[in-house]
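Memo to structure team: turn this sequence into structure tokens by end of day. - J.P.
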Amino acid sequence: MTGQGHEAHAGSGGPHGRPAAAPGSPAAPAAPAIPAAPAAPRAATVPAAALLLVLLALSAAGCGSEAPDPGEAARSATAAARSVLDKVREGTDAGGDVRVGRTETDESGRSTATVTVTNRADKPYRYSVAVDFKDADGTVHDAVVVALPEVPAGGTAKAVARSNRDLPEGVTARLSRAVRY
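Reply from structure team:
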């Protein structure tokens, strides 16, 4: 089964690419919510406030009358991505479940890469994946977090990691960290 995820980054106006709900199932919530009662021990979410923090930090990196410093923008994006994943409660490292595909440039000049998650567990999980866009020397030029809603047990889901701005040629997308919850 293949689904779509969404990402949080500056300039997006918020998460996008949310999959359509299956017929007869409730529509997906606008943002992850904390369950009213603990239905399962893995019940954890990325608080909406954390995603808002990413958006604010990334947009602040590009504000002002001067051209933004690319190094400062990358540091800000990296810190914001780390902050989002640090907010996941009861999350488990999921780097082994994630593959980041080839980096391409979209029609607007942004770097993109397909993130594929394979849930090898015996129950559904949500995933948050931090992707760094690095040059050949390992310098991080940008970072984004891609959130994938419930990935069924044994299922696969895909999402697109898209840079916050135009990046130098030769930059590649690399998995920074992934958490399932």
